[in-house]
């Protein structure tokens, strides 16, 4: 199947060909005809599956069929990085230059964004917080929105944006097309869909917890005090080339500390986290893409929206707090048909979190106990007992917690 068979106009097909898109991905094959028909859509797909083009290509075609003033398409994204990536993709895919897009994200100069909005735009790509800032100032009118896209909806809910989303929903017309994309279909996502959409079509191409097939996953068992030493050893050993490495930490302070340690050992390194300004974050990502930095240390703000095809390794310096975040982190490598490797550094206190990740994926992660780093074999954990939608894992190292009686 090619793009013309999906109902796309010749102009859109030519854009795809110019970008080297030879055949549509599974999410594109199923989603594009639905979006072109004007129906609401729920798309379950991981990042890196081509879902951005799945909603941009047909949306661009629909708004190009007639010229109308005002913001006609609103795309909400949870992070600045993802919004910037969507904005970049729109510029590449848009065949009608009159349909301008404007980006509105926190950390950037709001006066510049206001000036861009005053010039006129058909498409607004925004993070929820900055969008509400602009609407409260009277700089954005959403009364002409025909298509509302909620991208990475699960991440927006995890970040506490549900009240902001509800405020935005109250500003857009009730007669509209709503496209909701999410990596997982949780109860909260289903509730959001029921309250915002009209008889949506469900397109599901990624099972919950699935990681890219071309990613080799391993977990290194080490003592807590040996984590940094193991990371340095991995990056500096010669038997395996670590060409472009994305290292994930749980905290901003951890990302800063680790990047300074690696820089002191003469590694070309940069970092991305919420305490850095938007220009700093963009420069770090650009440096990583262009090869100026071999290692990028990041918190989970980079787990979604980071579009770099040639990441050779993802290293989880810290095991993520949520099992789903592991899937998104690992999805940063093994993209565009390339091979990738994902390494997780697991200390004894991380073992239960690692088991939860394996249960989510439905498969074990290969364990390695490197010599000289104080690693031990993991404690055996029995299969979880199911209690409805919940599960409880038993382990000999886990004791029940009883709160101390108040005095």
Description:
Helices cover 36% and strands 17% of the residues. With 407 residues, the chain is α/β, with parallel strands linked by helices. The protein folds into two domains: 3-204, Rossmann fold; 215-392, 3-Layer(aba) Sandwich (Rossmann fold). The strands form three sheets. Strands 3-4-2-5-6-1-7 form a seven-stranded parallel sheet, sandwiched between helices. The protein has a seven-stranded parallel sheet with strand order 10-11-9-12-13-8-14, sandwiched between helices. Helix 3 packs across helix 4. It is globular, with a radius of gyration of 22 Å. It starts with 9 loop residues before the first helix and ends in a 15-residue tail after the last strand.
Map the helices and strands.
Layout: H1 10-18, H2 26-37, E1 41-44, H3 51-64, E2 73-76, H4 80-93, E3 101-104, H5 110-118, E4 123-126, H6 128-136, E5 147-150, H7 153-158, H8 162-169, E6 177-182, H9 187-196, E7 201-204, E8 215-221, H10 227-236, E9 245-248, H11 252-264, E10 269-272, H12 278-289, E11 295-298, E12 313-316, H13 323-330, E13 340-346, H14 351-361, E14 366-368, E15 385-387, E16 390-392
Helix pairs in contact: 2-3, 3-4, 6-8, 13-14
């Amino acid at each position: 199947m090619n793009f013309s068979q999906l109902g796309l106009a010749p102009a859109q097909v030519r854009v795809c060909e110019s970008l080297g898109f030879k055949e549509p991905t599974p999410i594109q094959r199923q989603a594009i005809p639905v979006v072109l028909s004007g129906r609401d859509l729920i798309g379950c797909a991981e990042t890196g599956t081509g879902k951005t083009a799945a909603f941009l290509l047909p949306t661009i075609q629909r708004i190009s069929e007639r010229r109308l003033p005002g913001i006609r398409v609103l795309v909400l994204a949870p992070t600045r990085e993802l919004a910037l990536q969507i904005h970049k993709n729109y510029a590449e895919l848009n065949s009608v230059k009159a349909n301008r897009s404007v980006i509105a994200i926190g950390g950037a100069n709001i006066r510049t964004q206001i000036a861009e909005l005053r010039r006129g735009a058909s498409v607004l790509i925004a993070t929820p917080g900055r969008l509400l800032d602009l609407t409260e100032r009277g700089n954005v009118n959403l009364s002409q929105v025909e298509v509302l896209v909620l991208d990475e909806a699960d991440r927006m809910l995890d970040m506490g944006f549900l009240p902001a989303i509800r405020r935005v929903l109250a500003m857009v017309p009730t007669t509209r097309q709503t496209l909701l994309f999410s990596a997982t279909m949780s109860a909260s996502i289903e509730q959001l869909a029921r309250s915002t959409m009209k008889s949506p079509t469900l397109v599901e191409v990624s099972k919950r917890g699935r990681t890219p097939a071309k990613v080799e996953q391993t977990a290194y068992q080490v003592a807590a005090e040996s984590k940094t030493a193991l990371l340095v050893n991995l990056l500096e050993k010669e038997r395996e080339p670590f060409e472009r490495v994305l290292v994930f930490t749980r905290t901003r302070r951890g990302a800063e500390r680790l990047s300074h340690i690696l820089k002191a050992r003469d590694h070309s390194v940069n970092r991305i986290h919420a305490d850095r300004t938007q220009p700093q974050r963009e420069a770090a990502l650009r440096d990583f893409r262009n090869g100026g930095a071999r290692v990028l240390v990041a918190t989970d703000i980079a787990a979604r929206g980071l579009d770099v095809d040639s990441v050779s390794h993802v290293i989880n310096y810290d095991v993520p707090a949520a099992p789903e975040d592991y899937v998104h982190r690992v999805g940063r490598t093994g993209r565009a048909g390339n091979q990738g490797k994902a390494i997780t550094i697991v200390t004894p206190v991380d073992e239960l979190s690692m088991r939860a990740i394996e249960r989510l994926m439905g498969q074990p992660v290969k364990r390695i106990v490197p010599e000289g780093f104080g690693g031990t074999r993991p404690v055996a954990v029995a299969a979880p007992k199911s209690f409805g939608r919940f599960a409880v894992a038993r382990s000999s190292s886990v004791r029940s917690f009883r709160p101390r009686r108040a005095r």
